[in-house]
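Q: My hope is that you can spare some time for a protein that puzzles me. Underneath my words sits a plain record pairing an amino acid chain with its backbone structure tokens. Those tokens are not coordinates but codes from a learned vocabulary of shapes. Thank you; the sequence and its tokens follow:
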Amino acid sequence: MRYINLIDVLDSIPRDEHERLQGLNDGLIPMDIEARKAFINNGNRHWRPIKEYMEVASNRKCWFTESMNPGFPNEVEHFRPKLRKVSDDNVVIHWYWFLAFNPINYRLVAKFPNSLNINPDTGLTGGKHDYFNLLADSEHVDDLNLIGTERPVLLDPCVESDTQLLNFSPDGRPVLAANMQGNEEAGFRVDTSNLRLNLDYPTFNAGREEIYNDIQSWVGRGDAAEGNELALSFVQDHLRELVTPAAQYSSAALCYLRCFRDRQWVEDLIY
């Protein structure tokens, strides 16, 4: 999960698009509950045009998994669910209707992390769907100005400290960062995000494992090339492509490359 600077994304969206969405948001205020639900349910055509600006920010990669998913369109996901969620006894748990047409709540997501699927390795059903739980010491708010007081369980690619909670094992699985070992809250957030965002679905794990094997192979070639400046430069250029922010699974690639930083030529490449 690469950090996405949401301010930069918002700045890239033309002013007339912001004004159009603001007008839609303002139009929700006088509506009754049923009218709001109906209008938001049919809102895809209104927020879909924002997707092109979101894709530029990540080279079309899903913001959560960093997968490119060729042949499958990304979706504009509402990080805080746009529709009303109630408990079994009809008590409202949360309803972020006031963020339905506000791009600060938009995240670019591949279809798979956003939909319910059974992980064949664990047998558990993952996928974000309408999940949006908060940590125990936090409460859902109904005011845009108070959003910053919430503490979501799910990792948010637009919060840099959240993206730093993830490392990756050589077999491609997302794991808690080494410097956060023993932090129960961080571990819970990573485990829940792995499930609810399908971060550790076998397809994604296999892609990251392939990158680990590729890096390991190229580091071996780099070791053999030491003393040959031209050959070593060729190896470094290849590794540099794998960790560039635009590359698929680049945060995993950077994590893997750091495993070999005992080599000075790798350390030079990273920094």
